[in-house]
């Protein structure tokens, strides 16, 4: 893992900045990269930039456009960069389900960018509407945690459980830790792990919103690998089969490129789950996401990319 550490003073500044934005009733919903690019193509004046322009749309801004207290906190946190006579935040903040969550600024071109977007919203919403395992989960892990949004939601829903937010991206783990502290959840922690390989024992609930696209740059937050991007999702299914406690459940949100009506993730995943004797349900929760990807060579034969929700339960 590439070392990445936020010094203590910068952590405190990030927490203070987040609290200040919350006190100012800041709100922002992060959109897809394609929509963000369209919005940013519109003319905007740095001198009149709003908090949403600065911390949501990643627009350049003039120092005079922001409250001096916020700018001082941004400088102390090391999240402001100079672009000529203008400034720019190197982090975004989104609001979701009553939380304020840091993640990477747009564009997310870095190999270790921290993902947040409409998939995060659908994932957290799907979890909220899914019944808990029959017995209250005592040990929960989120694989590919990114910003830690799902881990925070689970920590609130199951306050007696231990919740682990796992990722291979050190920058994501650092921001997830900040987001957990900002949320004030004491039963969640971030932990480096490649899938579940660095974690011990069994889990009552395993959740994941893994990368599922074929990314030419193979950025960790985006590239799923395998057949049309389903490789990592299938690895998570295999890991869950091995590490779920009796009565435990896997909640998996992912995307699948459909070709001639065929769902390759369902085809392969169902075979794995049936062979292992797990009960499962599966549904498309959005039939058409990231349509712009169909214009790339990797998806030349695909007809659409669907967001799907898999719930699999291990027998007692």
Helix content range: 25-40%
How many β-strands, per DSSP? Answer: 11
Number of domains: 2
CATH superfamily of the largest domain: Vaccinia Virus protein VP39
Run of helices and strands:
HHHHEEEEHEHEHEEHEHEE
Q: What would the CATH topology of the largest domain be?
A: Rossmann fold
SS-derived structural category: alpha/beta
Major beta-sheet overview: 7 strands, mixed
Query: In CATH's first tier, which class of the largest domain applies?
Result: Alpha Beta
Strand order of the largest sheet: 7-6-5-8-9-11-10
Tell me the overall shape.
Answer: globular
Structural account:
With 316 residues, this protein is an alpha/beta fold. It is built from nine helices and eleven strands. It has two domains: 8-98, no CATH class; 111-313, Rossmann fold, CATH 3.40.50. The strands form three sheets. Strands 7-6-5-8-9-11-10 form a seven-stranded mixed beta sheet, with helices on both faces. The protein has a two-stranded antiparallel ribbon with strand order 1-2.
Q: Which helices and strands appear, and what pairs or packs with what?
A:
Blueprint (H helix, E strand, L loop, with lengths): L7 H16 L9 H8 L10 H5 L12 H10 L2 E4 L2 E4 L1 E6 L2 E6 L13 H11 L10 E5 L5 H9 L4 E6 L2 H14 L4 E5 L10 E6 L22 H13 E15 L5 H13 L2 E8 L17 E10 L3
Parallel strand pairs: 5-6, 5-8, 6-7, 8-9
Antiparallel strand pairs: 1-2, 3-4, 9-11, 10-11
Helix pairs in contact: 1-4, 1-7, 5-6, 8-9
């Amino acid at each position: 893992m590439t070392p990445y550490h936020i010094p203590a003073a910068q952590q405190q500044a990030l927490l203070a900045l987040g609290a200040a934005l919350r006190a100012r009733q800041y709100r922002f919903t992060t959109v897809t990269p394609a929509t963000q690019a369209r919005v940013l193509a519109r003319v905007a004046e740095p001198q009149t930039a709003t908090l949403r322009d600065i911390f949501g749309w990643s627009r350049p801004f003039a120092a005079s456009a922001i409250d001096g207290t916020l700018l001082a906190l941004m400088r102390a946190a090391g999240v402001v960069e100079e672009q000529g006579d203008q400034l720019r935040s190197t982090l975004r903040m989104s609001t979701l389900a009553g939380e304020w969550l840091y993640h990477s600024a747009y564009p997310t071109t870095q190999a270790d960018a921290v993902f947040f977007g409409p998939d995060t919203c659908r994932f957290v919403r799907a979890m909220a509407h899914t019944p808990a395992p029959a017995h209250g989960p005592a040990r929960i892990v989120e694989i590919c945690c990114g910003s830690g949004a799902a881990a925070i939601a689970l920590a609130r829903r199951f306050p007696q459980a231990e919740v682990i937010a796992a990722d291979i991206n050190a920058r994501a783990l650092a921001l997830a830790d900040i987001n957990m502290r900002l949320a004030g959840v004491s039963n969640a922690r971030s932990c480096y792990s490649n899938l579940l390989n660095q974690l011990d024992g069994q889990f009552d609930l395993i959740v994941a919103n893994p990368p599922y696209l074929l990314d030419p740059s193979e950025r960790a937050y985006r590239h799923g690998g395998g057949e049309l991007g389903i490789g990592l999702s299938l690895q998570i299914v295999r890991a869950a089969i091995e590490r779920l406690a009796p009565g435990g459940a896997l909640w998996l949100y992912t995307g699948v490129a459909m070709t001639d009506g065929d769902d390759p993730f369902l085809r392969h995943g169902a075979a794995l789950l049936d062979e292992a004797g797990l009960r499962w349900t599966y549904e498309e929760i959005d039939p058409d996401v990231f349509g712009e990807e169909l214009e790339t060579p990797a998806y030349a034969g695909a007809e659409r990319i669907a967001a799907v929700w898999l719930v699999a339960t291990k027998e007692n």
